[in-house]
Amino acid sequence: MLTHFSSGLVKSNKIGFAFRALAEAASQAATSSSSSNAQDNKIFEKLTQPPPEIQPKVEQPTEKPPEEPPKPSVEQLENEIKDLKNQNLYLLADVENSRRRFERLAKELENTAITAMAKQLLPVADNIRRILDSGEKQTVKAIFEAVGIVDTELHNIFKTFKIERLNSKGVKFNPEFHDAIATIPGKTEESGVVIDVITEGYTLADKLLRAAKVVVGK
């Protein structure tokens, strides 16, 4: 009896194992079928999708080379040359007129300065004439004093026009302001020094107007 029971149990296990195998096979078949259907659906979707739009190729317009300006005619060139010559003549005439105007202005300024100085020198000339007219009636001392007054008056006028007398006597000889007309022996300390002034020197606005003629010691 035990043997019969064992034999039935083995058969039952075999049958259960067979059912499980069939169930697993059915499950795998279902899974495989589902996967196959999914792949088929993807392929179908790709086939049924509309093709992508192809944008038409737009051709870019080609740039035209810049047009060369028209060449001037011979007549145009001749007219331009004529205009340039006329402009040159006008400029030359303008420069010449300006030069003449400046020369006239400089002459007027010079005459104005001379007139102003002359007006101040006239009284000096009058005083010199008075001294000469009364010279025979005056003593030498009086004449000497009168000449000194006139000299002072004259140099005051010079200062008005920035004319200054050089202080030359007793100073070191300077060839820029002195013109040596003679040299004489002197003391050692007088070597190269102006001993005597023959003609006074003057400056105008700190510029040499006339060099002094001097005697220099050696």
UniProtKB/TrEMBL annotation:
Coiled-coil features, chain-numbered ranges: none
Record region (Disordered): 26-76
Biased composition annotated in UniProt, kind: Low complexity: 26-38
UniProt GO BP: protein folding; protein import into mitochondrial matrix
Alphabetical keyword list: Chaperone, Mitochondrion
GO molecular function annotations of the record: adenyl-nucleotide exchange factor activity; protein homodimerization activity; protein-folding chaperone binding; unfolded protein binding
Pfam families noted in UniProt: GrpE
GO cellular component, one term: PAM complex, Tim23 associated import motor
Primary location group: mitochondrion
Compositional bias annotation for Basic and acidic residues: 60-70
Subcellular location per the Swiss-Prot or TrEMBL entry: Mitochondrion matrix
Keyword tRNA-binding: no
Entry's family note: Belongs to the GrpE family.
Protein task: Essential component of the PAM complex, a complex required for the translocation of transit peptide-containing proteins from the inner membrane into the mitochondrial matrix in an ATP-dependent manner.
Protein name (record): GrpE protein homolog
Record organism: Tritrichomonas foetus
